[in-house]
Amino acid sequence: MSSIDTLVNTTIRSDVRAIHGYHVADASGYIKLDAMENPYHLPHHLREELANRLVDVTLNRYPVASYGTIKERVRAKLGVPAGYDVMLGNGSDELISILCTGCALQDRRAVVLAPTPSFVMYQRSAQFAGMDYVGVPLKADLTLDLPAMLAAIAQHKPSLVFLSYPNNPTGNLFAADDIVAIIKALDGFGLAVVDEAYEPFAQQTFMHRLPEFDNLVVMRTVSKLGLAGIRLGYMSAAPQLLAEFDKVRPPYNINVLTQAAAEFALDHVEVLNQQATDLRAARADLMAALAAMPGVQVFPSAANFILIRVPNSDDAYAKLLSRKVLIKNVGKMHDVLANCLRITVSTPEENSAFLDAFAASLAS
């Protein structure tokens, strides 16, 4: 009988063995400001109504594979253009994986291209699908390097270009004209995927521009809107493209509890939109408070998080952790993020507690 080490080495891909799994920190007992979640619950009366609706969900049957009712609500409530459908995913992560799997050509090694730093799952999904990944560094001010992006597109002819809008982890919106230039540069051989996970906080979108560009895919999630726990992403594109990607989508990929909860939430989307409005106001207050602190550089943000630079991000992170505040230390992700921290915008109470702990960390 082979040892387990031999079995792993002979059956698992070497590139998979060489990387670490996606790490999620244990937040028990902490003020949790590391994952860009909406901190607000639904109002009590809506939670009771949701509970009553979930009681009636048929758990012993598979979901209706067309997902017609939830897709209808997404199209009606979330700005999808007339004549365009949506595909649902188990979070946007699954949609990224579906896009990469569908575009992993068999006659040549296909390429995924994205600005870097950006969402880590673009690179991971490309790798797992057997595609090459090309990252194009942002400028020192964290803006998009359009000439470098266009040069990389011309050189590598990528099948997919992912553009996080606004970008994670930097929080800034790339210039819309730059994104249009990238979409046009890909015409005829590649797809531009505009990932609008933080659209409720940016109030900027390419969704209405889908009819302009056959090679545009717009992807979103309801996680940041306030439904991270149900894991639901959606994307829209030209009907012919969406039909091809639907062949890759696993059957029954959205469970009935997620569907019921999402339908209920979209029936009351005005509550979630108000929470997003409150968080946008809190973002402005938090940015102003941070900018007033000595030695802290605050970068522009159109998301529900803020990127800052401090003299020593490792030290600040450790001191915040000791004070039971969990943020994200992104200083090692890329050279342009040296000594940077990412903080999720939260409730006034949690924002105030963070600021007190952060000020104490800087002073000690």
From TrEMBL:
Residues 30-357 form the Aminotransferase class I/classII large domain. Its EC number is 2.6.1.9. The modification N6-(pyridoxal phosphate)lysine is found at residue 224. It catalyses: L-histidinol phosphate + 2-oxoglutarate = 3-(imidazol-4-yl)-2-oxopropyl phosphate + L-glutamate. InterPro entries: Aminotransferase_I/II_large, HisP_aminotrans, PyrdxlP-dep_Trfase, PyrdxlP-dep_Trfase_major, PyrdxlP-dep_Trfase_small. GO terms for molecular function: histidinol-phosphate transaminase activity; pyridoxal phosphate binding. Keywords: Amino-acid biosynthesis, Aminotransferase, Histidine biosynthesis, Pyridoxal phosphate, Transferase. One of its GO terms (biological process) is L-histidine biosynthetic process. Pathway: Amino-acid biosynthesis; L-histidine biosynthesis; L-histidine from 5-phospho-alpha-D-ribose 1-diphosphate: step 7/9. Signal peptide: none annotated. Its cofactor is pyridoxal 5'-phosphate. HAMAP family: HisC_aminotrans_2. PANTHER family: HISTIDINOL-PHOSPHATE AMINOTRANSFERASE (PTHR42885:SF2), HISTIDINOL-PHOSPHATE AMINOTRANSFERASE-RELATED (PTHR42885). Homodimer. Belongs to the class-II pyridoxal-phosphate-dependent aminotransferase family. Histidinol-phosphate aminotransferase subfamily. This is Histidinol-phosphate aminotransferase. The lineage of its organism: Bacteria, Pseudomonadati, Pseudomonadota, Betaproteobacteria, Burkholderiales. The gene is hisC.
